[in-house]
Amino acid sequence: MFTGAGVPGDIPGGNRTEWPLTGGSVVLDLHHPWTYVFINLGLGANVSNFNYTLTPQFWNATGNGTLCVPELKLPSGLTVQDGTQASIQVVTVGDSGSGLYNVSLPPTTVGRPRL
Question: Rounded to whole angstroms, how far apart are CA atoms 112 and 61?
Fold first, then answer.
């Protein structure tokens, strides 16, 4: 399974998005009257198991538009070091319980922000 729209995460010298150890921001453009949102994290270069949830309880996003989360922290007790490779998965679910979107974002590197 490839993350990030089918782009393998282990391409030498590949571009990875940096995610701060203290947590990063998320902006979603939603197009349904309401949806449940889950955001998950998988560790490693090529992730097939998103086994860490960044949203311990799902979010009920109501209304079409933009959902902005200024700081989404890593789970407490999750030990990662600067430079850890990871991928973030966004899942939205509609009223029938079926998935509206299941998107794996581009490969990520967890660490200290670079200046």
Answer: 30
